[in-house]
Amino acid sequence: MSFLPESNAPAGRILAIASGKGGVGKTLIAAGLAQAFSAQGERMLLIDGDLGMANIDVQLGLSPDADLAAVMSGQILLEDACQPVMGGARQRGGFDVIAGRSGSGGLAGMRPDAVNRLAAACATIALSYERAILDLAAGADDSTMRMAMAADDVLIVINDEPTSLTDAYAFVKRLRIRDETAAPLVVVNNAPTAEKAREAYAAFRKTCQSFLGFAPALAGIVSRDEHVPLTIRAQMPLNQRSPNCAAMCDIAKLASALAAGREAA
Fold first, then answer.
1. What single DSSP character describes residue 157?
2. Alpha-carbon gap, residue 49 to 82, rounded angstroms
3. How do 185-191 and 95-98 pair as beta strands?
4. What contacts 215, CB < 8 A, 6 or more positions away?
5. Residues 160, 196 contacting (CB under 8 angstroms)
6. Domains present along the chain, CATH in parentheses
7. pLDDT category, 53, cuts 50, 70, 90?
8. Which residue of 38, 90, 161, 259 is surrounded by the most CB atoms within 10 Å?
9. What is the pTM of this model?
10. Is the dihedral of CA 148, 163, 264, 213 positive or negative?
């Protein structure tokens, strides 16, 4: 086994992946970033924070023995729900996963104090890694916002559909109401061209600037890629099935940019 060397990344940093609406590729971006950060030398944890319709285990073809539902019922500790993917967090390109209860909706009605305890537990377990990625539920309900507030950084996934932009704006608005210093970043996914992606981002940025007095920065663009739906259907990590495809290369650039604090595109 090839173990990762020590990284210069700060321990325990949490990156939340959000979207205003479902179907924009948020989970694919979350899993792809976990692979990309690991390939760049960071010990990574991916947490399925979608308390209503978790699906990371399905996308990655996992059959977890334990998940967040077992954690929240008190059956196990959060760290006992970790499952290795592609060799796990000690293997370059691998990462650990804490899965949700896939498709059950069973955690969607959690009390606010329970969500707060879960967010605190995620922050604690993240300290055992260089970086943790928290895949949030789509939308901006109270539980999603509480989980987002546990993160150090928030990345919003949009595409060029008008509903994606309006719903993402609603997320940013609620996040800024809770924390006026919050500065979420934007990634445009499934972009037919870089020009179309930048047009979508420009429209989103203008709306946020006009109504919130805040202009979120563009972190990167992920190209539309025929390998992506094939990978999802195959229930495999993108970097495992199509490591050199355009979308994975864009996600790797995005990870590098996020680590360096600059724009990828």
1. E
2. 14
3. unpaired
4. 205, 208, 209
5. yes
6. 13-260 (3.40.50.300)
7. confident
8. 38
9. 0.91
10. negative
